[in-house]
Design a protein that fits this description.
This protein has helices spanning 2-23, 27-52, 56-80. The longest helix has 26 residues, at 27-52. It is mainly alpha-helical and 86 residues long. The relative contact order is 0.12. The termini are far apart. It has one domain (12-80).
Length: 86
């Protein structure tokens, strides 16, 4: 029962972040919302790992977290106007 509550709260957070991505007033606000969506997806995947007992999903969440971090760094460098090798 408690896992369902956590799942629905994470899903609500995901939809609120998607709303912020669509209506964010500035590009940095949208970048932060995209990063939070990545974190919420990692949380949902980790929660599903606990519920199902299948350790495959924890590998998915670790991979997603790494890709989300790299994407956030790349997007922040782009928004600053710098090149990737600087």
């Amino acid at each position: 029962m408690i896992f369902q509550v956590y799942f629905w709260l994470l899903l609500l957070c995901c939809f609120l972040c998607i709303y912020r991505i669509g209506t964010g007033p500035t590009p940095p606000d949208r970048a932060v919302a995209i990063d939070v969506v990545g974190t919420v997806v990692v949380g949902i995947s980790a929660l599903y790992t606990v519920i199902s007992g299948n350790d495959f999903y924890i590998n998915v969440s670790i991979s997603w977290a790494l890709l989300s971090f790299i994407g956030t760094v790349a997007l922040s460098k782009f928004l600053e106007g710098k090149r990737f090798d600087e």
